[in-house]
Structures are given as structure tokens and as C-alpha cells.
Amino acid sequence: MSPLNDRADRAGHTAIAGCGTGGAAEAVHHLDRLILLGIATELHRRTRLRDGESHDPCAVAEDLGAAPRHRWIAGHWLAALHENGLVSRNGAGGYHGLHSPRRAELAEARTRMGSARAALGYPAELAELMLRSLRLLPALLSDEVGVQALLYPDGELTTAEAVYRGNLISRYLNAAAAEVLRDLAERVNRPLRILELGAGVGATTADLLPALAGHPVEFYLFTDLSPFFLDTARRRFGAGFLRYALLDIARDLPHQPGGLDLVVAATMAHNAPHVGRLLDQVAALLAPGGRVLLIETVREHPQSLTSMPFALSTAGGPPERHDARAGTTRTYLRREEWLAALGGSGLRVDVDLPRQGDPLTALSQRLFVATR
């Protein structure tokens, strides 16, 4: 891997200096376990799985009163419970033998969540998000409550900031990303042209902008699908070289072939129906030597099962996928699939972090930087 990989890694670890990471894998396990037990409790209380017989996911979704667009989530949950040994599956795809969590087991999981949250540097808002999502499962499934109410209660961004910025792995990845941008700014001998896709609450933007201090910037185009995020960003970051635009990555990207120095996509490129096609489009936008910077989750942890699937549901059910995820309900690509997709788009991977063996890999979020 490149010297830039080393510098970015050092910058990331400097940002979390003093935070112990050795217990990350155990902490992640405890958070995952809490959500799995909560889902198992909900299924045991509200569905026919408690009778000990084998039932298909459609029947379970019916028992849950799931709205049509959320019916697929029952099968998604059951697959995760099966993977973690909490329900059995027969050869015909039916599920049986659902684990029924005891009150003491749930209380223990709740207690362990507190220490796990602290070990991972998760603020209290993240723990409250997890617990609130479990309490609201019936309303989420029936579509009486949207996932936006979880992430943006009363229109506030505190919870979303905690999810995307105020935690150990986000601080590491954002600091490493900022080092990549500093390196790029020193190499390009003209004002920079930067595009950020699906910038959302600006959690990564907020760490990237200081890296541009003292460097000429022609524009930094902050885009998102939602006017809400654009208005929030305007108030937060102001104008200057920052520009704002609505953009749907499932449709056409801006038409500036060969003109961009950096395209940023933080925790959003997986939303593309076909990531290979998205990366082909991004590569075409880059000037020679231009870079794409991705922050991506490479494994769906159970702790996101009570929020992320609801955010992804479409009118027709699960999100449409035409890449390696086609025919599945997978949300994310694996690390190896991202590396292959970047290479397939003619991009050379220069940064792939955290390093293998780093305890932070247990959180399954990564920074990929590739150069045209």
C-alpha cells in the first residue's frame, strides 16, 4: 500500500489517541446481541413463531402487521437471527425454534450495552437510538413512524451527528480522510474542484473543510437528495467556495467529465443500485490524478437492523440492486467487492483502512481512496 496509506492511518490514530481499541470486537458483539435479543423478543411476542412450528417469513411479516414496503424486513431479521443461532431454518426456508429471551438475559444485555458504548466511544445519543428503535418496532413496521423520527427527533441533528461523527470509528476515518485531502491539496497546482455525494448532515464535510485552509479552491459542491440537508449545510458552513445542489446518484451525476480533483462519498455509495456503474461515472468525472474517497460499511451488523432496513425500503419493498447484492437483501458490499469494483473502474487503490489486524476492523467501516 502507498505511503499515503501510512500517513492517513497515523492521522486517524492521532485523532483517537488515548482511546482504547483492544476491546472493540467484544463491545461490538454486546451491542449486536442486544438488538438481536430485542428482535427475538418482538417476534416471540407478536408472531406465530412462538408455537414451535415452522413458518415462512411472509407469515411472520403478516403477524407483525408490517406495511407492504416493510414486509421484506421480517425475512431479513430472521436470516440474521439464524446466522447468530437464535432461530432454526429448514430446507424449505421456513423458520422454527425461535429463542425466547429471558427477562434476566435482556437485563444483562442492557447492562453490557452501557460498557460497550463507552468502550467504542459512542455518545449517549447512540445508545438511546438503539433502545428507542426497539421500543418503536411495531410503529416502524406498520409505517406509523418513519426512521427519520429516530435519526432526527424534533428535526434536531444531535442523534445523526452521533451516528456519523461522534464515535470512535468515525473520528478515525474522518481524520484519515482529511489527511488524504491535505495531501491532494499540496499536489494539485491549481484551485481544487471537489464534489461530495450524499453529504447528509455534513459529518465528514466538517472534518474535510479545515484541511483546505490555505489552499485555493475553485468550488466544493455539497450535494444531497434532500433539500433539508442542503438548507442545514448552508446554515452550518456558509458560502465562499461552497456550492449546494440537489443530486440523486441513481440518476445522472454532474456533467463535468475529467474536471474534478476529488469526489467524496461518505457512507452513501452503497445506496447506488449498481456500485460498479456509479464508480464508472465517478472515474469519468476525475481529472488525471484525481481521487475518489469512500467511507463505507463492509458488513451489516445486527445493531443496525432496527433502523437501516427501514431507511432503505422502497414502495416496492427492498432496495433495487443490480451488482453483487442482486437477489439478496444485503445492504453493503464486502471489502473485497469494493476493491474489485474500484479496480474495475480503472482506479488505483491507494488507501484501504483500518489496516488488517487493527482492532478497529471489528466495527466494519473502512476508508477507500483510489486514484484515476
From TrEMBL:
GO terms for molecular function: methyltransferase activity. InterPro entries: Methyltransf_12 (IPR013217), Methyltransf_Superfamily (IPR050508), SAM-dependent_MTases_sf (IPR029063). Pfam families: Methyltransf_12 (PF08242). The keyword DNA-binding does not apply. Keywords: Methyltransferase, Transferase. SUPFAM superfamilies: S-adenosyl-L-methionine-dependent methyltransferases (SSF53335). It comes from the Bacteria. The keyword Methyltransferase applies. Residues 195-292 form the Methyltransferase type domain. GO terms for biological process: methylation. CDD domains: AdoMet_MTases (cd02440). PANTHER family: METHYLTRANSFERASE, N6-ADENOSINE-METHYLTRANSFERASE TMT1A. This is SAM-dependent methyltransferase.
